[in-house]
């Protein structure tokens, strides 16, 4: 996604009885760079921009020759990663340097907390917070990024999306969701991952949907799991039992629009999908 102002990834969250639709557009996006990302050109139209500690080094290196167009509003963290040179440059340019020494939370989580305070203080009308980076590189840091998404559920009602390369991740709240996947920017894969624990889940619009489970459809040796019920509400996604990785969207006839994906879950559930850099 080279220009967020030209990009629309409609994701509709449906917390009954209210339906809230949001789009990644220039007028309602804040961004955080949490780790190395090649997508910094996507953020020129954001309302509020921030870097988490060492991500400022990457921003500095990536934007050589045009750094003034990509100045963050603030850089936060414990500053154990940002270099002296980079720190001095952004301080000279007037960027706020906000040291957060708390070691119980990641720099990403602390950076997000500051952003939410700034949104409230400035009374900004924000549709989404987009994080560039956090989905590649060290596995432990990727998991830390996902853990921040769990924190975010309790910090804000705003959607917090993570984008890196050709991947997008978004933590679905418990409830029903309607995901628009007909923008031309979607890749060819998607997944639902129960990172925080077991999730009872129903879906539509996927190649392999999760649905209500009929006892008679199970192998004989598993039918006891339904405790003599003919049907249980939802399939359960759980590590060690079932995860929905390497899924895809429901096939449609050529020329027909792709139907939205619907997801109902009783626990937070990580939605991830492929994205392309330009419309097909």
Automatic annotation (TrEMBL):
It holds the Pfam family TPK_catalytic. GO terms for biological process: thiamine diphosphate biosynthetic process; thiamine metabolic process. Residues 175-269 form the Thiamin pyrophosphokinase thiamin-binding domain. The keyword ATP-binding applies. Keywords: ATP-binding, Kinase, Nucleotide-binding, Transferase. CDD domains: TPK (cd07995). SUPFAM superfamilies: Thiamin pyrophosphokinase, catalytic domain, Thiamin pyrophosphokinase, substrate-binding domain. SMART domains: TPK_B1_binding (SM00983). It comes from the Eukaryota. GO terms for molecular function: ATP binding; kinase activity; thiamine binding; thiamine diphosphokinase activity. PANTHER family: THIAMIN PYROPHOSPHOKINASE (PTHR13622), THIAMIN PYROPHOSPHOKINASE 1 (PTHR13622:SF8). This is Thiamin pyrophosphokinase thiamin-binding domain-containing protein.
């Amino acid at each position: 996604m080279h220009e967020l102002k030209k990009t629309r990834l409609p994701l509709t969250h449906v917390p009954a009885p209210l339906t809230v639709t949001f789009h990644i557009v220039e007028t309602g996006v804040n961004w955080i760079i949490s780790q190395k990302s090649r997508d910094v050109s996507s953020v020129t139209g954001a309302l509020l921009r921030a870097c988490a500690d060492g991500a400022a080094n990457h921003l500095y290196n990536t934007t050589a020759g045009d750094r003034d167009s990509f100045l963050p509003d603030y850089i936060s963290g414990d500053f154990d990663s940002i270099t002296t040179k980079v720190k001095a440059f952004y301080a000279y340019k007037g960027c706020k340097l906000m040291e957060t020494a708390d070691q119980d939370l990641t720099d990403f989580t602390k950076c997000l907390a500051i952003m939410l305070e700034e949104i409230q203080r400035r009374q900004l009308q924000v549709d989404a917070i987009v994080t560039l980076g956090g989905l590649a590189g060290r596995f432990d840091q990727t998991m830390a990024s996902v853990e921040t998404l769990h924190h975010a559920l309790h910090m804000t009602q705003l959607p917090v999306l993570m984008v890196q390369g050709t991947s997008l991740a978004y933590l679905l709240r418990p409830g029903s969701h309607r995901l628009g996947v007909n923008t031309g920017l979607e890749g060819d894969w998607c997944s639902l991952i129960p990172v925080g624990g077991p999730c009872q889940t129903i879906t539509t619009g996927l190649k392999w949907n999760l649905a209500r489970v009929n006892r008679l459809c199970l192998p004989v040796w598993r039918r006891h799991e339904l405790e003599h019920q003919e049907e249980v509400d939802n399939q359960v996604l759980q590590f060690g039992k079932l995860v929905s990785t390497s899924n895809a969207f429901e096939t449609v006839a050529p020329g027909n629009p792709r139907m939205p994906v619907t997801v109902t879950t009783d626990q937070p559930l990580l939605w991830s999908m492929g994205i392309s850099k330009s419309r097909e």
